[in-house]
Amino acid sequence: MTINTSTTDKPRLVVVGNGMVGHHFIEQLIEQGAQHQFSIDVFGEEPHLAYDRVHLSEYFTGKAAADLAMTDGRLYDEHGVRYFTNSQVVGIDRAAKSLQLASGDSLPYDLLVLATGSYPFVPPMPGHDRDNTFVYRTLEDLDAIRDCAKQVTRGTVVGGGLLGLEAANALKNLGLETSVIEFAPRLMPVQLDETGGQVLKEMIEGLDVSVNTATATQEIIDGEQAFHRMNFADGSHLETDLILFSAGIRPQDALARQSGLEIGERGGICVNNDCLTSDDSIYAIGECALWNGRIFGLVAPGYSMAKAAAAHIMGDVDKRFMGADMSTKLKLLGCDVGSIGDAHAQTQGCKVFVYQDELTQSYRKMVVSEDGKKLLGAVLVGDNSYYDTLLQYYLNAIDLPDNAQSLILPSMDGAPAALGVDALPATASICSCHNVSKQDISDAVCAGALSVGDVKGVTKAATGCGGCAALLKKVVDNELLALGVEVSTDICEHFAYTRQDLYNLIKIEGIKTFAELLQKHGKGHGCEICKPAVGSILASVWNDYVLKKEHIGLQDTNDRFLANMQKDGTYSIVPRIPGGEITPDKLIVLGQVAKDYGLYTKITGGQRIDLFGATLPQLPEIWEKLVAAGFETGQAYGKSLRTVKSCVGSTWCRYGVNDSMGMAIHLENRYKGLRSPHKIKFAVSGCTRECAEAQSKDIGVIATEGGWNLYVCGNGGMKPRHADLFATDLDDETLVKYIDRVLMFYTKTADRLQRTSVWMEGLEGGLDYLKEVVIEDKLGLCEELEQSMQHVVDTFQCEWKTTLEDEQALKNFRQFVNYEGGDANVVFVEERNQIRPATEAEKQQLIAKAG
Amino acid sequence: MCEQQDLIEGAGIAAMLDGQQIALFYVPEAEQKVFAISNWDPIGKANVLSRGLLANLKEQWTVASPLYKQHYELQSGQCLEEEGVKITTWPVKLETGKVFVACK
Fold first, then answer.
1. Cα torsion angle, A237, A240, A242, A248, sign
2. Residue among A468, A100, A37, A117 at smallest CA distance from A306
3. Which of A117, A187, A320, A390 could be stapled to A273 by a disulfide with Cβ–Cβ 3.0 to 4.6 Å?
4. CATH 3.30.413.10, chain A: domain bounds
């Protein structure tokens, strides 16, 4: 590789390292327009551009490298930032202000930013470098671990800290019998106290992961029953096939060290509050930097450093790095763990409240100041729902309420006492990943961001780890209220209820018609908002024929005529083709019908065939032929299941691992009758190549070696959203059960015309909450959800078949009540050998000619 | 024009009146039980208003166009969203089970 250095007169800014912090730094530079003042180059040692290391483990549960990527390079390209992956910088000549690259090239710099991160510490015991020993930091590490895990049965993690337990979870997910070895007397010694560590240990052992604390490994030698034997200081030993070292991190300061920058006693590049090193043209940020004798091994402080350094470079001297809060909450092996501030109660004179429930395995501790007024720290194991409130008391030094212990006691109605967001000061940090304060959110709302989604877009709050999403929603709602913006959730002027309220009223009171609902709970006579919404709910709950006399006036034109109205008032017809699988005979029927009626014919994006240009009276005639040939309505007109897109799967494809075709047809036939708040699209892919694009669908299913991975709430179209991985390696039965529950919970709780993607964005508690409802049955709803779905499945009818048998319904399809002719305004012209609606100009011409 | 039983309660049907397309709405709750308006949606530029949804907004009877959802007042033909847009309406009479529309 040759790097051209003569392209610019601008000063050269070079960033070494392209991890999360290095990338965030570039984002900050671009945001502040630094690319106009500097020529910017970025060097990364890894083959990939920056990716999300915080969620690295999801690489094992279905996410691909591209899913974890923080950029595909487009941002850099668009702003003229040059980037070089696989490019190691091997030396800095500070006197000459130039960098040496592994390739032999050298490159001058004016300003240099070191974002070299850290490397995993491997205890230097004999045997630590044997085969089948790994660390857990890069995608390449994970590839190597996965390859090895396929051959073996037992895996051991050395290190019981945060990263070690994360790694243990990964080994367990790879199907290994998993052990954890921790040198300290308890798990997560940095974040947890002794009891907390003990409770966590018991919880984790309950998940079939064996845990050895206070255990020092002396050497690793050949095993007898397994690949390795680990000999411990107390004379005992453990046999295992795979060893993963996760015993902490060390700052990657080699480059700084050999160039003579000031380094801390135990490593780390010394920086000041501007993140400047001892050389005033070199900055260091992230895990390689040592600030006030501290290394910060979390991403949020790294981001703060990136902001401070970028601001300083751009001449803003106010945004200095002033340290960072190291409080954390996480889910490790499914167990909630939280740690705030002085978790070990080391503050002089502090007092402690403790709550422990051995039955449900939860432990909570609050550390308060001597006078009991301020919260100094906390430890949570087993239930993190207490975390947000405690963190706000801690971060903002808010005076604790009387009976402060109630903050960690289970409340009688099950929910912990929350801190009203009103009580938070303007400076309260709401999102620590992106350093967004309550004031920032208030400013965004005042500037016109009137929804959580808008505020997220403007401030980036809740787009890092996402832990603050619920709190963000409360703050936004509170700000809107304060602004006097009426947050009316009434569906329209006729019902002072949300869609969810109406759903519950209809279901609980057994209401069967719009008139009955209006009489009991509404006023006036209804409108085009409430009528279709109620029509849809009635169909979701009771699944009556939608063209019954009492329902017909509720249906939008598409539902009323069971076809899709086009711009000229004609309709298109979409028969169901489950999974896109169709026999040649049926294909011929479609072709013949289209030919007979002169319909414009097109393949849809959902693997079906759309026939355009049918007039009202033609609809029943055409359907008569289609039903006779075995077709059913495709409900392309309804807010209901559209298609289940599929690849051919293992039946034909040499890469397929399961029968995606069979599953797609099964799912399409199961859910085809469901009327929902908005349309629903599915896809099933037969392997991780994902040809069916399931991750852009409301419900996406991808075949794995172990069953099916289920994705939910994705969307393509106007506002694409990548679906969330909901559950992995499901068998057929569990897959269907989860889909039943997710869809019915959506149908029950979403707003009208709200796609699953938007529903998920607004769902308080987000994906984790949905998992709790659907997988853990937190609300005790699952049985009801399944029954509701089964009712819809059992009462399915093809609406076209029913209509053809109903004399009264057929009268509906007359063009005119008193005249047999057609609509003279419907005029077609030919284009590419098919019809299309004539334009206004063409109609004028035709009229002129005829005249 | 047609029999009363040809009408659909709470919805519209199309009819032909002297070569013009009209939409007939049967609204049992309203004082004037049947309304006749032009079937032509001047904004969507198609004969579709008979296929729109009836909406009672602030006690006014309107139909929402199935194409782009503008409301037209059944009594006056006024479009609620576009001040300058107004469609033709006709007086209607319901007598002995038959629907009569006054020609203009």
1. negative
2. A117
3. A320
4. 639-802
User: Which residue is listed with tokens 């009462």?
Assistant: A795
Range A12-119+251-313 has CATH code 3.50.50.60: yes
CA B9 – CA A432 distance, rounded (Å): 58
Within 8 A of B15 by CB-CB distance, chain A residues are: 816-819
A752 in B contact zone (CB under 8 Å): no
Residues of B with CB under 8 A from a CB of A: 1-2, 6, 8-11, 13-16, 21, 24, 29, 40, 44-48, 51-59, 61, 64, 66-67, 69
Q: State whether residue A494 sits within 8 Å of chain B by CB.
A: yes
* Cα(B1)–Cα(A818) distance, integer angstroms: 7
H-only helix segments in A234-386: 254-258, 299-313
The closest of A9, A6, A75, A76 to A41, measured between CA atoms, is A76
Partners of A289 in beta bridges:
A269
With helix as H, strand as E and coil as C, how does A362-410 read? EEEEEEECCCCCCEEEEEEECCHHHHHHHHHHHHCCCCCCCCHHHHCCC
Are A553 and B15 an interchain contact pair (Cβ–Cβ within 8 Å)?
Answer: no
- C-alpha dihedral sign at A21, A25, A27, A28: positive
Is A691 annotated in some ligand binding site?
Answer: yes
Instruction: Answer for the pair A245, A159: CB distance below 8 angstroms, yes or no.
Output: yes
With contact defined as beta carbons under 8 Å apart, do A785 and A740 qualify? yes
In degrees, rounded to 5, the angle at the alpha carbon of residue A292 between the alpha carbons of residues A291 and A294 is 65
Confidence band (pLDDT; 50, 70, 90) for A416? very low
Pairing of strands A209-212, A177-181: parallel
Mean pLDDT of A75-101: 93
Q: Is pLDDT at A718 greater than 80 in this prediction?
A: no
Q: Which CATH architecture has domain A133-247?
A: 3-Layer(bba) Sandwich (3.50)
State whether residue A568 sits within 8 Å of chain B by CB. Answer: yes
pLDDT in tens, A342-366: 999 999 999 999 999 988 889 999 9
SS3 for A93-159 is ECCCCEEEECCCCEEECCEEEECCCEEECCCCCCCCCCCCEEECCCHHHHHHHHHHHCCCCEEEEEC
Closest chain A residue to B52 measured between Cα atoms?
A557
Any B CB within 8 A of A492 CB: no
pLDDT in tens, A434-462: 778 889 998 998 888 887 778 887 888 87
Q: How confident is the model at residue A56 (pLDDT cuts 50, 70, 90)?
A: confident
pLDDT, tens digit, 9 for 90 and up, residues A806-833: 988 898 899 999 988 899 899 999 999 9
CA separation for the pair A781, A132 (Å, rounded)? 46
For residue A551, give the H/E element and its range: helix A549-552
Q: Does A822 touch chain B (CB under 8 A)?
A: no
CATH architecture assignment, domain A325-419? 2-Layer Sandwich (3.30)
Share of chain B above pLDDT 90, in %: 62
- What is the CATH classification number for the domain harbouring B71? 2.102.10.10
pTM of the entire predicted model = 0.63
Kindly give, in sequence order, each residue whose CB lies less than 8 Å from that of residue A370, ignoring residues fewer than 6 positions away. Answer: A348, A349, A350, A351
Query: What local confidence, expressed as pLDDT, does residue A415 receive?
Result: 45
Based on DSSP, count helices (H) and strands (E) in chain B, helices before strands.
0, 12
* CB of A232 closer than 8 Å to CB of A220: no
pLDDT tens-place string over residues B32-46: 899 999 999 999 999
Distance separating alpha carbons of residues A41 and A33, to the nearest angstrom: 15
Task: Return residue ranges of chain A for CATH 3.50.50.60.
Answer: 12-119+251-313, 133-247
CB A746 within 8 A of CB A677: yes
Pairing mode, if any, of strands A724-730 and B71-73?
unpaired
